[in-house]
Amino acid sequence: MDATTSRGASSSLPLHLIVDDTLALVTPLQQSFQRSQRLCFGDSAPGEFPLAANPSIVLHVLTSCNLDPEDLAHLEATCTFFRKPANFPPDFDLSMSELAALDLCQKRAIFKPMTAHERELFKQRCGGSWKLVLRFIMAGEACCRREKSQAIAGPGHSIAVTASGAVYTFGSNNSGQLGHGNLEEEWRPRVVRSLQGIRIIQAAAGAGRTMLVSDAGRVYAFGKDSFGEVEYGGQGSRVVTTPQVVESLKDIYVVQAAIGNFFTAVLSREGRVYTFSWGNDTRLGHQTEPNDVQPHLLTGALENIPVVQIAAGYCYLLALACEPTGMSVFSVGCGLGGKLGHGSRTDEKYPKLIEQFRNLNIQPVVVAAGAWHAAVVSKDGRVCTWGWGRYGCLGHGNEECESVPKVVEALSGVKAVHVATGDYTTFVVSDKGDVYSFGCGESSSLGHNTITEGNNRHTNVLSPELVTSLKRVNERMVQISLTNSIYWNAHTFALTDSGKLYAFGAGDKGQLGTELVAQQSERGTPERVEIDLN
Asked: Which residue numbers delimit the RCC1-like domain (predicted)?
């Protein structure tokens, strides 16, 4: 290592290409395996770097270890070997760390189909470095479980996606939202056979609607034939009972879909956000008919900033953005209750940066939009909540609203890795796989199964409590999904790292994946759904 460089390296490094002309590498084209002298310990003491004559071995090690972009940046900052041109195709001027980042990008499904021109444009959009592209892709994988198993607790119906991309649906089917070609309820998980041969990597559920995203960037929709509820007046009655490609999105490579009440949003591979519906009065930055089927680019502040995750609430949208300087959150839509996080209750027609995270020195890595409140997990494991505080859903020990993000102090001893929000309910998953919940206790959806004395109603939880019923399962939880709708009783899914799925809460339509005992409409303790998602 270069001692003079390593002493000045900070713990937080920019991920751009570092240029240094002080060292000439031995290229792989040279046939000599003789060890070459290198100034590995500063100018005063020459040292040896045996692998300098075989940089292909170093590149193989870097890509095999799946180093993250920050690790690669640290290597560049502390050793000249890793920041000199490596003389490898496809770009002989790239450093060893940049080549490793490019190779790691090429392993990703969303990156493989890109042309050389598309890749170059993608790199420039991310900040001009393959390390920044890798950081963008990895951030999206981490917060959305892209290309991993997942479960979605929709309003009355449920979706389960296996690690291989097969889709199972069950529960209410009044609009064909299960995708089986009929309108019959399903009380057990049933595979959507018409998707055979198509690998699904992400799913979203709304009231009577389902959207699925494939590894080829195609979007399939079924259920209600609309992208949002009409705010006033009647809703169209046409339903689609089998998955159909969304034709208006064929020219956009989509990686995520999110369904609000009045609108739908999708996220492209390049980090651009498109919205459908609710365009009257320019509510989402565009002036259109409420049921417009054409996607509209979300303009304004996010036009030139790549987004890694979107989250849709009842009437607002959150976007987790990946800038060269760090992660940030933008919000747009209805500001009632302070759920946009800007310190007011004003609506925003264009995306606006939530500045409070910088004031708190927080790097957001996961964002969740409940019906009326929102939450974020930071890189260091802190949890912030804001918006309507009814039933204690913000976890601050009261029911007050918060118009800017506020750290949940009751979780100060917990390092969070995942958060999920619903209709006045919040769940947090720790790095140890423990689950905490707080908010409205209706429908047994918090997992605590506690009854308020005298009135047979479930207790609301104002501060985070460990879900002991999941702790007793003796499995490490990795994902929680809960119903995010004001019109349906809620249910909750808990997914383990071994691919087991547990369900509790409302189950009157079969949305828990198991039949309930006669006269029961909900389950207070987790029960395994008979499906293996791995």
From this structure: 149-481
369 and 314 in contact (C-beta within 8 Å)? no
What is the dihedral angle through the alpha carbons of 53, 56, 61, 63, rounded to the nearest 10 degrees? 150
What gap in Å lies between CA 335 and CA 321, rounded to an integer? 20
Q: How many CB atoms lie within 10 A of CB 235?
A: 14
**Residue 451's pLDDT band (cuts 50, 70, 90):** low
Q: Are residues 114 and 251 in the same domain?
A: no
pLDDT in tens, 420-431: 999 999 999 999
What does the DSSP 8-state code read for residue 408?
Answer: -
Per residue in 71-108, pLDDT (tens digit) is 999 988 888 888 888 888 888 899 999 999 999 999 99
The last residue of one of the domains, among 96, 127, 142, is 142
Rg (C-alpha) for the chain, rounded Å, is 25
Cα distance between residue 386 and residue 397, in whole Å: 13
CATH number for the domain spanning 329: value is 2.130.10.30
- Given a cut of 50, whether residue 167 has pLDDT beyond it is yes
Domain-located, residue 416: yes
Q: Please give the biggest Cα pair distance in the chain.
A: 86
Q: Which of 83-87, 266-270, 448-452, 517-521 has the lowest mean pLDDT?
A: 448-452
Cα–Cα separations (whole angstroms), residue 303 to 29, 309, 325 = 43, 15, 17
Question: Is a pLDDT exceeding 70 seen at residue 31?
Answer: no
Q: What total number of domains does the chain contain?
A: 2
Range of the domain at 411: 144-227+238-529
Query: In the structure encoding, which two tokens stand for residue 205, read together?
Result: 């559920």
Q: Give the Cα separation of 427 and 416 in Å (integer).
A: 10
Any residues with CB less than 8 A from the CB of 179 and at least 6 apart, and which? Answer: 167, 169, 192, 194, 195, 210, 222, 223, 241, 242, 243
Is residue 102, in this structure, part of any structural domain at all? yes
Residues 62 and 97 sit within 8 Å (Cβ to Cβ): yes
Residue 111, token pair as written in the block: 């990156």
Is 475 in the same domain as 491?
yes
Number of neighbouring beta carbons within 10 Å of residue 193: 12
